[in-house]
TrEMBL record:
It comes from Rhizobium straminoryzae. Pfam families: ILV_EDD_C, ILVD_EDD_N. Residues 68-381 form the Dihydroxy-acid/6-phosphogluconate dehydratase N-terminal domain. The keyword 4Fe-4S applies. Keywords: 4Fe-4S, Carbohydrate metabolism, Gluconate utilization, Iron, Iron-sulfur, Lyase, Metal-binding. Its EC number is 4.2.1.12. Residues 408-601 form the Dihydroxy-acid/6-phosphogluconate dehydratase C-terminal domain. This is Phosphogluconate dehydratase. Catalyzes the dehydration of 6-phospho-D-gluconate to 2-dehydro-3-deoxy-6-phospho-D-gluconate. GO terms for cellular component: cytosol.
Length: 606
């Protein structure tokens, strides 16, 4: 089916806006690709260093410039549950490459931090910046000029966006992303949330909380709620970077290994040495980016991607704006209910039909572009499938069923859970911001209440424990933007605000920081820009000012006389406490040069 009229119009607008940047980008990609197999440009000394540890047969193959060499960029570490399975992937990929007549080498490793470990800790102030550091680290790995294609092993929050930026920077190379899959289901996410709120109220102790958390995060694989990590996997599939049906197969299963082997062989098949050359920079275009945004809305995905997708697109010379994202939200209905906007986890989503069923529904009414390039070599319709193993242990694909396996988790396009997407953009006299409404009850989509101002999340925690917040209010937590302290997720605010809301109070949050990718039931206007450290209007708010958050009309306002508000000086804060400790001193140049949230909060595209 042809693209929906609104989808087509927004895509055309992005194409026109992006032309100068995209044309210059494609020129660079094509000139790099035209140089051919890059090992031919290396001196004998260069090449000898590059394949010193290879077998004699591999050395002979690589010396001849006729056998493709696959670079592996890995974010493996065994502290992250999602990334621990990657320990065994390089040998599997090397063997698959040999079977396909090629060679594979680990080109480099990239850092991979866990936001779940650093939530509320000083290390969280490195989290957002780790995305750009990951892109640079991957760039170093690929800079050896030894490779005809690359595979990227990454799952979690900033890691996949950083790897995508690297893949598109090396856009003359084909790139395939290989997922590791979600952990099996443990303690239900809503029960985990309940225990967290009880702990915040002092009704259970640390032992009970740790037991609940350990039962929820209990083994190898991605956390099972629908936060940034699983939103990443959805994006990689709907944008064509994954093999069809690969995103949500559990680690340690025969199908997972077979999909990994298949992905490695496919990466070798689409190099310039074959007949299906698919460089990443040509493959990903404006249509692919729009498909990613549509998928994000249809699944109620992570708020973090209002920054990540902007930065990822910009790496390919594509200028995506918050206005584009907002207008797409008005067009795309919500088709998935996965925690926090439902009780199911991502395993239930996959069992209900997963990505194949979702993409099939979106294609029905032209909400995604089918006429895109993918690593699979076909348009997006080829992704309306479920991956299985045949009797020989090979991957086969069956057409996704017409009906959902669980309509409470994944529904048809004809009967959406709500008419618009899970993310809304806000604007007004406080600047611009983002709100995730897929898990917020409709009666809380508009909140008007007096401001209570804080300069860090611990101040709010302390006020809650003292019983000072048993009232209607909008918490304004400022000086949490990228320039101030790296824009940490303010995840520790979720339990106390949830408790206050459950007590019947009208509460909301306004912040220039981030919330978790699993932002939940409390209305939260986040990513407010300009941030307080840039003298943004949020720095002028005073205790008692009436704040209005309107997710229906998309507005964010302080209800103060315009002349009075304009005359107020912007408050300044002492941020020296953010400068040192847990590596924060190493990231001072990032804080100095980072761009605003609506431009991707990046040091590359400031």
């Amino acid at each position: 089916m042809a693209a929906h009229s609104s989808i087509e119009a927004i895509t055309r607008r992005i194409v026109e806006r992006s032309k100068p940047h995209r044309e210059a980008y494609l020129d660079r990609v094509r000139r790099a690709a035209a140089k051919g197999v890059h090992r031919s440009t290396l001196s004998c000394g260069n090449l000898a260093h590059g394949f010193a540890v290879c077998s004699p047969a591999e050395k002979a193959a690589l010396a001849g410039d006729v056998v493709p060499n696959l670079g592996i960029i890995t974010a493996y570490n065994d502290m992250l549950s999602a990334h621990q399975p990657y320990e065994t992937f390089p040998p599997i990929i090397r063997e698959a490459a040999r079977e396909a007549g090629g060679v594979a080498q680990v080109a480099g490793g990239v850092p991979a931090m866990c936001d779940g470990v650093t939530q509320g800790q000083p290390g969280m102030e490195l989290s957002l910046f780790s995305r750009d550091a990951i892109a640079m680290a991957a760039g170093i790995g690929l800079s050896h000029n030894m490779f005809d294609a690359a595979v990227f092993l990454g799952i979690c929050d900033k890691i996949v966006p950083g790897l995508v930026i690297a893949a598109l920077t090396f856009g003359h190379l084909p790139s395939v992303f290989i997922p590791a899959g979600p952990m099996t289901s443990g303690l239900p996410n809503d029960e985990k949330s309940r225990i967290r709120q009880l702990y915040a109220e002092g009704k259970v102790g640390r032992a009970e909380l740790l037991e609940a958390e350990s039962k929820s995060y209990h083994g190898p694989g991605t956390c099972t709620f629908y936060g940034t990590a699983n939103s990443n996997q959805m994006l990689m599939e709907i944008m064509g970077f994954h093999m069809p049906g690969a995103s949500f197969v559990n680690p340690g299963t025969p199908l997972r290994e077979a999909l990994t082997r298949e992905a490695a062989k496919r990466a070798l098949a689409i190099t310039a040495l074959g007949n299906e050359f698919t460089p990443a920079g040509e493959m990903i275009d404006e249509r692919s980016i729009v498909n990613g945004v549509v998928g994000l809305h249809a699944t109620g995905g992570s708020t973090n991607h209002t920054m990540h997708l902007v930065a990822m697109a910009r790496a390919a010379g594509i200028v995506l704006t918050w206005q584009d994202i907002s207008e797409l939200s008005d067009t795309v209905p919500l088709l998935a209910r996965v925690y926090p906007n439902g009780l199911a986890d991502v395993n239930h989503f996959h069992a209900a039909g997963g990505m194949g069923f979702l993409i099939k529904q979106l294609l029905k009414t032209g909400l995604v572009h089918d006429d895109v390039r993918t690593v699979f070599g076909q348009g997006l319709a080829a992704y309306t499938v479920e991956a299985r193993l045949d009797e020989n242990g090979m991957v086969v694909r069956e057409e996704s069923p017409e009906e959902s396996g669980d309509p409470k988790v994944l529904t048809r396009i004809e009967s959406p859970f709500q008419a618009n997407g899970g993310l809304k953009m806000l604007h007004g006299n406080l600047g611009k911001g983002v709100i995730k409404i897929s898990a917020v009850k409709p009666e809380r989509h508009v909140i008007e209440a007096p401001a209570v101002v804080f300069h860090d999340q611990q101040e709010l925690q302390d006020a809650f424990k003292k019983g000072e917040l048993n009232k209607d209010f909008v918490a304004v937590v400022r000086f949490q933007g990228p320039k101030a302290n790296g824009m940490p997720e303010l995840h520790r605010l979720t339990p106390p605000l949830g408790v206050l809301q459950d007590r019947g109070f009208k509460v909301a949050l306004v912040t220039d920081g981030r919330m978790s990718g699993a932002s939940g039931k409390v209305p939260a206007a986040i990513h407010v820009t300009p941030e307080a450290s840039d003298g943004g209007p949020i720095a002028k708010i005073q205790n008692g000012d009436m704040i209005r958050i309107d997710a229906v009309n998309g507005t964010l306002e302080v209800l103060v006389d315009a002349a009075e508000f304009a005359a107020r000086p912007a408050v300044e804060a002492d941020l020296t406490g953010n400068d040192f400790g847990m590596g924060r001193e190493l990231f001072a140049p990032f804080r100095q040069h980072v761009g605003p949230a609506d431009q991707g909060a990046s040091v590359f595209f400031a």
